[in-house]
Amino acid sequence: MTQAAPATAAAMPTPRRTLITGVAFALAAAMAYGSSQVITRQIIGNMAPPLVGTLISLFWGTLGFALLSARNLGDRGDHFGRGALFFAAGGLFSAMGVLLMFYALGLGQVVVISPVLATNPLFTLLFASIFLRGVERITPRVVLGALLVVAGVVVLSAF
């Protein structure tokens, strides 16, 4: 039985590369969420009530993630129970967010609702400052960046 060779410095990702990869994934997620709102508005307006749309959306999301993560179920570690509770809470809030987004898109125009949804970085900063002390550094630069992103979305949608 051979042991794996230790990781070399050349094989380890650089902090800059990690940051660029993270930003690329965040941009892809933003594009996916943005397009999903337009698709959702079309569906809610013509094909299904918001609750049914939420059920279908979360079902396919759950199925997809179950298939992607099935191979890692054995890697539970020592903190699986506590972690599972946090994941369950995160999933509950995520499901509530999707449900409320579907209802909002069913009641209003996507060009109005989307900018309101785009205020989520402000709530992220608020909750991170409360619940992630010592894990996340929230600097004035980060706060300013979040405010500029939200302001930019509002300006773009207002004109």
Overview of the structural elements:
The chain is mostly helical and 159 residues long. Among the domains are: 64 residues, no CATH class; 42 residues. Helix 1 packs across helix 3. The longest helix is centred in the N-terminal third of the chain and has 32 residues. The N and C termini lie far apart (65 Å).
Keywords:
159 residues; mainly alpha; single chain
- Rg: 20 Å
Distance between the termini: 65 Å
Helical run tally: 6
The assigned structural class equals mainly alpha
Report mean pLDDT, rounded to a whole number: 79
Write the layout of secondary structure elements.
Layout: H1 15-46, H2 50-69, H3 80-107, H4 110-117, H5 120-131, H6 140-158
Helix pairs in contact: 1-3, 2-3, 4-6, 5-6
Compact summary:
Helix content is 75%, strand content 0%. It is mainly alpha-helical and 159 residues long.
